[in-house]
Amino acid sequence: MTETPSDKPDIFETRESAVRSYCRSWPATFARSQGAKQWDEDGNEYLDFFSGAGALNYGHNNPAVMGPLVEYLQSGAVLHSMDMKTPAKREFLQTFQDLILKPRGLDYSVMFPGPTGTNTVEAALKLARKVTGRQHMLSFTNAFHGMTLGSLSVTGNSMKREGAGIPLTNSSKIPYDDYFDGEVPDFLWLERVLEDSGSGVDKPAAVIVETVQGEGGLRAARAEWLRALSDLCKKHDILLIVDDVQAGCGRTGSFFSFEEAGIEPDIVCLSKSISGSGLPLALTLFRPELDVWEPGEHNGTFRGNNPAFVTATAALKTFWADNEFQNELADTIAALHQRLDGIVEKAEGASIRGRGLLAGLCFEDLEVAEKVAAYAFENGLLLETSGADDEVIKIMPPLTIDSRDLQAGLDIIEAGVAKFAPAAAKAALA
Amino acid sequence: MTETPSDKPDIFETRESAVRSYCRSWPATFARSQGAKQWDEDGNEYLDFFSGAGALNYGHNNPAVMGPLVEYLQSGAVLHSMDMKTPAKREFLQTFQDLILKPRGLDYSVMFPGPTGTNTVEAALKLARKVTGRQHMLSFTNAFHGMTLGSLSVTGNSMKREGAGIPLTNSSKIPYDDYFDGEVPDFLWLERVLEDSGSGVDKPAAVIVETVQGEGGLRAARAEWLRALSDLCKKHDILLIVDDVQAGCGRTGSFFSFEEAGIEPDIVCLSKSISGSGLPLALTLFRPELDVWEPGEHNGTFRGNNPAFVTATAALKTFWADNEFQNELADTIAALHQRLDGIVEKAEGASIRGRGLLAGLCFEDLEVAEKVAAYAFENGLLLETSGADDEVIKIMPPLTIDSRDLQAGLDIIEAGVAKFAPAAAKAALA
Amino acid sequence: MTETPSDKPDIFETRESAVRSYCRSWPATFARSQGAKQWDEDGNEYLDFFSGAGALNYGHNNPAVMGPLVEYLQSGAVLHSMDMKTPAKREFLQTFQDLILKPRGLDYSVMFPGPTGTNTVEAALKLARKVTGRQHMLSFTNAFHGMTLGSLSVTGNSMKREGAGIPLTNSSKIPYDDYFDGEVPDFLWLERVLEDSGSGVDKPAAVIVETVQGEGGLRAARAEWLRALSDLCKKHDILLIVDDVQAGCGRTGSFFSFEEAGIEPDIVCLSKSISGSGLPLALTLFRPELDVWEPGEHNGTFRGNNPAFVTATAALKTFWADNEFQNELADTIAALHQRLDGIVEKAEGASIRGRGLLAGLCFEDLEVAEKVAAYAFENGLLLETSGADDEVIKIMPPLTIDSRDLQAGLDIIEAGVAKFAPAAAKAALA
Amino acid sequence: MTETPSDKPDIFETRESAVRSYCRSWPATFARSQGAKQWDEDGNEYLDFFSGAGALNYGHNNPAVMGPLVEYLQSGAVLHSMDMKTPAKREFLQTFQDLILKPRGLDYSVMFPGPTGTNTVEAALKLARKVTGRQHMLSFTNAFHGMTLGSLSVTGNSMKREGAGIPLTNSSKIPYDDYFDGEVPDFLWLERVLEDSGSGVDKPAAVIVETVQGEGGLRAARAEWLRALSDLCKKHDILLIVDDVQAGCGRTGSFFSFEEAGIEPDIVCLSKSISGSGLPLALTLFRPELDVWEPGEHNGTFRGNNPAFVTATAALKTFWADNEFQNELADTIAALHQRLDGIVEKAEGASIRGRGLLAGLCFEDLEVAEKVAAYAFENGLLLETSGADDEVIKIMPPLTIDSRDLQAGLDIIEAGVAKFAPAAAKAALA
Prior knowledge:
Four copies of one chain form a homotetramer. By secondary structure, chain A is an alpha/beta fold. Chain A folds into two domains: 9-61 and 322-418, Aspartate Aminotransferase, domain 1; 62-318, 3-Layer(aba) Sandwich (Aspartate Aminotransferase, domain 2). The first copy, chain A, contains 15 helices and 15 strands. Chain A has helices at residues 11-15, 22-25, 51-54, 63-74, 87-101, 117-132, 149-153, 158-162, 188-195, 223-235, 306-319, 324-345, 368-378, 403-420, 424-429; strands at residues 30-34, 37-40, 45-48, 109-111, 136-140, 171-174, 204-209, 239-243, 267-270, 283-286, 350-355, 358-363, 381-382, 384-386, 392-395. In chain A, the strands form three sheets. Chain A has a seven-stranded mixed β-sheet, with helices on both faces. In chain A, a hairpin with a 4-residue loop joins strand 2 (37-40) and strand 3 (45-48). In chain A, helix 4 (63-74) packs antiparallel against helix 11, helix 5 (87-101) packs parallel to helix 11 (306-319) and helix 12 (324-345) packs parallel to helix 14 (403-420). Chain A starts with 10 loop residues before the first helix and ends with a helix. Chains C and D meet through helix 1, helix 2, strand 1, helix 3 and helix 4 of C and helix 1, helix 2, strand 1, helix 3 and helix 4 of D.
């Protein structure tokens, strides 16, 4: 690598667009990474409780995926294949069928819509509209589904929505689970507008939902809420799309985040950790009866990213061939939440958000989360904030994190919370 | 790799969505690839005049990029980094600045909008609207810009447009160069609607254009037409976006396809071959004065795909550090077009389309192109069709193809054309 | 008038579009009308509790308006004047200012947006968007604002919405007063989405509301709900539009329907009875600070309908120069509601809807209202149904109805209700 | 009438919205009117070559319509009837059928869509979309169809379009006849985009056209152009809507403006002079096969304006029962155009626009038309300008104007043109 002497102007400052973001909170230059750790150019070590926003569920450079990847790249096999057949793609399909779909009793057609989360969401929305002949879409408050125009239309964040520069149309927003802090019966609004032909909310093609709102403040939908949503969709002949881009691939404790609720969505969006390695890959899954696409009606240059098929296959075989990984994961989840309980108990105005390893701590004082995240970075822990007001710290370590690293990271969080939201504050005020 | 005995049901048939497309025309399973060649599982060899729809400009598995890639992956460096700083990203930015921007006198901010072509187009459209405060957009007949909702709105193909399932709004279509076969002065329509405040075509934020319409039938805009378009945009204070996703990265003979015309677009979209390897990567370039993004206003999980930065850097250093590659490329282009001239001369109703190595043969008989493409596949040549009626064969070999492979591929094309569009037909009719 | 012998085909059947509607429920041909009565060609008499859907608040052919109208038409004065000045228009403006605005402490600019309800609503929506620079609009469940595209977008009825043939965009629906039968605190949803920058409901230019939903089932908003809505709008810098097309001009007991609540909307839409005669006329009123229109930016051929100015002026002078009419109206309202109380008491699953002389009876059994309306017609009373399921009978006699006619009409309603929703049904079931 | 002393503030200034427009060019207060003349309060006389923008084709207060109107209003007949049956409506339908439709061999269903031009256009657009299931619409450069959102979407004027405050979607603009001054074959663009499935212009439900663009600069489509448009629509199964709101009712010499071309539109919009008196009335006519409306799917309070039915019937019987009126009209048209020829001959950069009594004089010097119009007003002639730049004076006397008044008005025009665009200017420059 070329060295950049410290007296040279920083090319990130001079050349990269102002849209860059994470590098502002975390101004280090990250040179190496392994498992739950990263090191910057100066050799400083960081624990990573961010995990590529969910794209690195198996940690950085997991040998289980990196070995097959390098081997593949050295073999002369096909790297880029659009939607042509390759053995790597075949093996991925076979493995996904054998290890993921079949054991869960799921029969989904698999579409490769392009390699990113927003690609799979756009494909899902298009298919739902095509199948139903309806144009309207329902999404939830504080939802995040992506930055391209269709996905942005069903996203909640106002800053990101304004970035569209045009009105975002053809969808209505409905309240997510507990949006009214339990004050209102679940789905009161949704049920009424669907039953009332005068509601002015047009019958939607589909409802798109995240089981945990990764970007929208780590709210987690309860299993019974998801079941009621699924029932409501069935009752009204509306498709249910689960955007499992961030919450899927084991993040909440099971491969799909909706398994706990026992529901079977009509369409599922996967991306981020489906490649197992951080390489771009996305899938759109749907009931075979919905597979009404014309050949090539949706396409994309990078929908056949074979290195990602290879690492995806390796990850599935390594982690999902039996229950071992999932059991260990359950322990990690339990350990995390035990610590979070303790932290919250001693903190002022704090509450736990999220589910599994897609967890958060929310603070009534809107400034605490950013302070804790800054403190964490100073102390060698990468921790993102989430929510419309950045009022939540997002705790998303690799699923493969060992106990020591987990506890070390949580120690830093605990110290940060103690510093910026001490329970004493409450006492002092009383 | 797991073997799939021939008596087992084909998992591509049983599991992959009906949307799959190329695998229908080319039913082989491609196992290995190198340079301009691919081999299927049965060892059959194919010359590749398709080049991953422009994502493989330097051929398959080019050692110049694969070496650094494997080395990087083995080094423990960071694979996935969102928009954090990494040495690999820094080196890419530095190299892109030093080898591409500076020598061409271009000063563009660089945005990583997510790794695919449609990501960069969506970012370009958003930025143009944000900068100008205008909502309307102009695009050209037979344009192709991508499959997500914003990009699809500025795309021409009706089958793909209908896939949206909702009206595609906020843009108007204007005639591409030679849309009326020279019958009409250039930009007559555009000039009139811009000057006429009663035209009903709202003043646009930007015009988005491909210098060669890769998907829309290989029409190439003349340099003077592009200059006139650029002048018109400047005159009316409209941004000019060049979508160089397919035509860029050397495909037409220079790094950017607009260099020949001597224009300087306000915004440039790059993807496909910018990674040099077939790995997903995309850039949005724009004049620094246009860089009005809020941090994080547009984001995406895979905008920091470090393996792609590594191969991109390697490709730039290998091919664009001096003029050698570009000179060889000029020879290849000349050789190709010399042969095409000869083929057309002997064919019925055929004409040459495109520019550089983004070339095509268009046939008046709308069925010829598909027949020639099928014939080519049977004879070991991968050749795509293009255009609204698949009336054009698209000739897009790697830029690095050697003379023997080039001529071999062209021999097959010549034979196919001779078979399905013999000049004799003309004579016979006369 | 030309006679149509009964053996000739009915030209309404053979020539008028299938869109015709009231003539299906009331197949009579109405030849004469006076006050609260109409007579068909065969001399049958009908009491009119429909009042031209609110356009005939002062009854049919009220001498107080018809006299000046005929005199005006015979005088050689200007009938049609676009937005030129005429004495008739001046006198209307002066009278409206002196008798309506000033006594109520209101200072509104007066716009003539074209002569119908949907014209004034479209003008209001355009102005609100222009003033605020925001594009989104909020309207209520079961709202009715008109049939042109802008008004239809903020209307609730699904049958009418589907008539648009395109998606209705740029507005969200929010729950009207008591939409959840008291189960939910007022404005919980609206407050949350306005305060939550992640709600995905874009900040609106305005909220448009009817104080009583004339077409949407006669729901009446409580005064405190209207006040809270007004406060919420002020707090969030959102314009409040009251569509008083049906509920205004005395229908609820005061000239404007929002007077009881003591609020002052930013924009008010008037039409229907503003002309006092049934002639087409509409006004859009707004705070002078909002009057940012360019001359001619909104126009219309019939915005200067002088005969309507004349009857409007006459109606204002006759009925609104002092409190006498309003006091009599209060008595009529009291008499109506006293009878309705009695009717409901003896009926099965019935409840009173509406306010003032914009009242309704809602029945749990969705078929009752239509049966009662049909019964009423057979017995010489014109009575419309309302609501998404036609579940409400709409009781809207002229404001000028005398006690005898009022009681006579209510006798028919009482008999109809007793026939189709007898309380005995309850007893029988018990 | 109440007197307004000259020292009182003008209530039009203090109370009427800034959107008022004609009263700015013509600051008189018009008190009386008869035939082709109006008088202001001070007794000044004006010749009216404006005719209520086409709503007063039979002149002001034509006794042939005013007599029956007053008689009707004095008779106790029904004034306002929604879409109920009345004898007045029946007689109008019968008369329209007998005198207009039958003699022309036209079989149209008649819809009363609300009483204004924009109501009938909105109804036409809705019906075309409903019938075809297509959402896109085509309209022409410089078209004017109305100010409500649907009509505005197909209107050209940018100032009026911006008044919408939101993007106007779901339509594309195509060049009107002679938009390129004969440089381009007719319909080149339209034919190409319809035939090219890659054009990006979605197949429309309908094309909406004015045969003469009354607001857009008085361009008149040639008969052969209209025939070619009609053929093209038929060929591509696209509905043809003629907006005859301004050009219809005799204005161009025949009842419908499209009669000269011999075409039969699928849908026809009428308003303005259809009432014969300046009272608001509008019709939407369409082939009976297109009458797929649900009852009440489109409605409106003032669609049953009986006084307008009465005057409409009287006008039809007076002017269209035989050919006499049309023959006289032909003479008037001839006389007008003879004079216009002479005026243009002696003027600098002037050309004749329009057809029949919907004529204009267009000036190369964009300031001339406004100067001539101002001069005309000063000399007692009401003359409007038209066109995106107000570059045309619009000459639209009543169809019933006598020779003396016509010549007198033309004398003023001639003098104004001589003053502001003298041919001498040309000579002087030469």
